[in-house]
Amino acid sequence: MAEIIVDVGRQTDGATFRLSPQTRARLTAQKLGSPLASSLFVTFTTREAFEDAHGPMWTQIVMLLTGLTEEQINALGGFRLVDPAGSEVLLESHAA
Amino acid sequence: MSTRQNLYVGRAGQMAVMAEFLWRGWNVALPEVDVGEDVFVVKDDSGDLWRIQVKTATARPQGKGYSATFRVALKQLRTPRTPDLVYVFAIRGLSSWEPFIIIGRDSLLEEHELRRVGSKSRGSVIFQFALSEPTLTCSRQDLTAYRNDWSRWPILAH
Fold first, then answer.
1. Residues 4 to 23 of B: which have CB under 8 A from any A CB?
2. Handedness of CA B96, B99, B100, B101 (dihedral sign)
């Protein structure tokens, strides 16, 4: 099971990303990372522009929210993007 | 309390919260279509916007203080938005409004999920706040920091 849970709120023109309370508490307790943002809003057009050039941006979003490197995220078991209202898993990224 | 009485109490709480924002120098607006009791708070010169969800209840005497019970939809509580929601719980005492309880959605979710504040009930979370000067508690957790916490909106001079 992925260790980092990101809550996603889908809106008309994009989505808001935020670490789940449990993930935030666990990273804080373990003194892991130093978040650069408590939440992120990414518009669909921004995401498309980024992904046209660089590929999927999910890992970058998790890096910004946690302050962890990609290697550290993988070491924790990867991440899951979740719609918290219905607990629907939108994307799951396990460590290779 | 009848449904009609609930409407009057809810609207009174909304107006009381809006009055406090205006007194502090922050502009307010109501959405034309009623999808809850949202109030928009706007900083005139920058356009910064906050979404406020007002919840209103009548105080019930309890010991040396009083309690008030609120229901918050779990879906709304769990879903992050931009701009994110801030809850203002308005409690009407016998002769005046009691201190407002002001707490961001993310903080209320943390209190609920990490400190077991409130109890789940049919797609909602029930919060029973207990207030006695100068404290605020819910589910035996100290929430005094949220009592009249207007720090997001300092008084503006125009």
1. none
2. negative
Domain span at residue B109? 3-146
ipTM, two decimals, is 0.85
Q: What is the pTM of this model?
A: 0.91
Domain that residue A35 falls in:
8-18+31-93
CA distance A16 to B78: 12
Please provide the distance, in angstroms rounded to a whole number, between the alpha carbons at the two ends of chain A.
13
Name residue B96's amino acid. S
Task: Provide the number of structural domains found in chain B.
Answer: 1
In a domain, B118, yes or no: yes
Residue B155 lies in a domain: no
Show Cβ contacts of residue B124 under 8 Å, excluding neighbours closer than 6 positions: B71, B72, B73, B74
Q: What are B6-22's pLDDT values in tens digits?
A: 889 999 999 999 999 99
How confident is the model over A39-52, as pLDDT tens digits? 999 999 988 888 88
Strands (E), B47-105: 49-58, 60-62, 65-73, 85-92, 101-104
> What whole-number distance in Å separates Cα of residue B34 and Cα of residue A56?
38
**Own/partner pairs for B2-8, CB < 8 Å, 24+ apart?**
none
What per-residue confidence (pLDDT) applies to A88?
86
C-alpha distance from A88 to closest chain B C-alpha (Å): 12
Q: How far is A31 from chain B (nearest CA, A)?
A: 17
